[in-house]
Design brief:
single chain, about 300 residues, alpha/beta, Rossmann fold, 6-stranded parallel beta sheet, 3-stranded parallel beta sheet, binds NADPH dihydro-nicotinamide-adenine-dinucleotide phosphate
């Protein structure tokens, strides 16, 4: 292997420590950031994610309020829970764990969240503002985490050709918008590939920075990677592995060993992008609480002045 590893665990720990520092600052002003976490149903992966998010919150000084409901919850009840969290001054961020059971409309629920508390960054108001260059808009945690990984690795993005494979609303699409922004860690020339792209390899080989978010194990082979590229693998896929206790292991979308022969930097799976997603969610939540605290302070000054 010639590539150096981008250690997502270490960088995520750095960000979590920064968040903890900021929550201590807020505590001095009498504010404790609060995150409402809504979990519907019994999906095992969602349960694991929610547990990880809740634990990370507590460690960083953020109060997580878990709200669990059975899969047969009605539309009105779920929207009512979101409304209550929207109105609750102790809650600065709201997260509704996706996917929701089929009878519920994810878009409707996402759009019900107050954009000022939308720390997942999925609300169209935040996505639209972000695309228009508004730095105050909440950004989705996974693509924001990818940008932070690249930035903290010291890789220059300005003028670089970034190729993104995948155009989903939670990863690929916002990733492309982020890398286009006029800001440090962006200013890139961006190409987005997807399932209709003809000759995927010809496109990925152009990427000085290659970000892959597809959900197909090993879809990017070594010969699809440009020599010296920075490779970010967002994919998380279970593949059978009878040699492990669980019977499976996690792999990314990039054939790691092959790609590492050509890349200059590469993220592992697990331990690359995954840990960043939670760290960025925490960061969005503390940012929301800081914003609320500043607004409250400004309101007090205005009222007394
Ligand atoms: P989606 O299924 O929503 O999107 C996949 C994208 O890949 C689509 O745009 C699709 O194209 C494209 N695609 C599918 N097949 C091909 C192909 N053969 N060639 C080129 N492009 C293709 O997935 P997500 O974006 O939600 O997730 C992608 C991966 O990232 C998954 O493995 C997921 O588990 C992982 N993930 C990891 C996170 C983390 O924290 N590390 C967080 C979120 C996701 P089209 O639009 O044309 O259908």
């Amino acid at each position: 292997m010639t590539a150096q590893l981008i250690d997502g665990k270490r960088i995520a720990a750095e960000i979590r420590a920064e968040v903890a520092e900021r929550t201590r600052g807020l505590a001095e002003r009498g504010v404790r950031p609060g995150l409402g976490v809504v979990l519907v149903g019994e999906d095992p992966a969602s349960q694991v994610y929610v547990r990880m998010k809740t634990r990370a919150c507590e460690e960083a000084g953020i109060q997580a309020r878990d709200i669990k409901r059975s899969a047969d919850i009605g539309r009105a009840e779920l929207l009512g829970i979101v409304d209550e969290l929207n109105a609750d001054p102790a809650i600065h961020g709201i997260l509704v764990q996706l996917p929701l059971p089929r009878h519920l409309d994810e878009r409707e629920v996402t759009e019900r969240i107050d954009p000022a508390k939308d720390v997942d960054g999925f609300h169209p108001v935040n996505q639209g503002r972000m695309s228009q260059g508004d730095a105050t808009a909440f950004r989705p945690a996974t693509p924001a985490g990818v940008q932070e990984l690249i930035r903290r690795t010291g890789v220059e993005t300005s003028g670089a050709h970034v190729v993104i494979v995948g155009r989903s609303n939670i990863v690929g699409m916002p990733m492309s918008q982020i890398m286009l922004q006029k800001e440090p860690g962006a200013n890139a020339t961006v190409t987005v590939a997807h399932s209709r792209t003809a000759d995927l390899g010809a496109v990925t080989r152009q990427g000085e920075i290659l970000i892959v978010a597809v959900g197909v194990p090993g879809i990017v082979r070594g010969d699809m990677v440009r020599e010296g590229a920075v490779v970010i693998d967002v994919g998380v896929n279970r593949v059978e592995d009878p040699t492990t206790e669980r019977g499976y292991r996690l792999v990314g979308d990039v054939a790691f060993d092959e790609a590492a022969e050509r890349a200059s930097w590469i993220t592992p799976v697990p331990g690359g992008v995954g840990p960043m997603t939670i760290a960025m969610l925490l960061r969005n939540t503390v940012r929301s609480a800081e914003r609320t605290a500043s607004l409250a302070a400004a309101g007090t000054v205005a009222a007394s002045g």
